[in-house]
Amino acid sequence: MNIGEFQTDRSPSGQKAAMETPLLDVRDLSLRIAGNETPLIRDVSFSVRPGERVGIVGESGCGKTMTGLSILRLLPPIGIAASGQVLFEGEDLFALSPGGLRAVRGRDIAMIFQEPMSALDPVFTVGEQIAEAYRAHFAASATEARARAMDALARVGIPAPDKRYFDYPHQLSGGMRQRVMIAMALICSPKLLIADEPTTALDVTVQSQITDLLRDISERTGTALLFITHDLGVVAETCTRVITMYAGEVVEDAPVDDILLAPRHPYTSGLLRSLPGLSPRRGKLPFIPGRVPSLAAMPVGCRFRERCSHAVPACEVYQRMEPVGPMHSTRCGRAGELSLMGAVH
Questions:
Q1: Phi, psi of 291 (to 5 degrees)
Q2: pTM here?
Q3: Tell me: the pLDDT tens digits for 115-126?
């Protein structure tokens, strides 16, 4: 996507969301694998307010999906130890019983998974699977659940929902399967929708349709959106706020305009400079050298310092998230002295 095509949200609803009490409040979330002292996810803290659309960006292996799954406690209970708090409407999801958590999953918080063909059951029709999600939380008859499922299919733009209800997943295209996943997530009218890279396996045209659909649904229904992706163009068009993650840490958190115009962490700036639309014509495409470190080779102090051209000896100590402006914080001790390139020269 060209940088000139970025469209950000400056709507009153987006501004209002920034002033409300958090719907989701993640506090010092850390994940450790059994037998390894180095945390896989370290001190992750962020919030999502009612109606807000928050994007989580970063390279593969930075912990975006792990963070999303841990919110709903969908990670294996054996072998991974979680600490911290995940507050939803003031209630700690980590403290809920299995029954209490099941009442929240799908009802108040829904998730769209990355690969719909793996998430959908091949032996049931898509309509039956959507209706089942509704009946799991409401005392509804089969007839009512079917009507609700057809309505949900219609709302996500699937034509002839009365016929598509009886289709199996393999009979639908990738874009249609993703719309089915969205319909299943929305049928219970959740307050928060977690979308885990919902456009990764789709072509560009369908990607645009899905992101437009998610943004429109959020604006129309007031559903908060946590959008996990590696595509900064999608985030710029869809979200009101951006969280950058690197090697299991949040390294920057700011409104989308601030991130695009004036990033305050070298990693965020590197991601923006790597976009083809920012590279000089017939020039070499900028890139971030190296790769995300493995858990066995995690650097001490700033986890990005070995790939950072601005690193100094002071970066060898642990870096805390610090405010650098209104609603803008970063995990870089040099943020006050660096002038980093954003999406606009």
A1: -150, 165
A2: 0.89
A3: 888 889 999 999
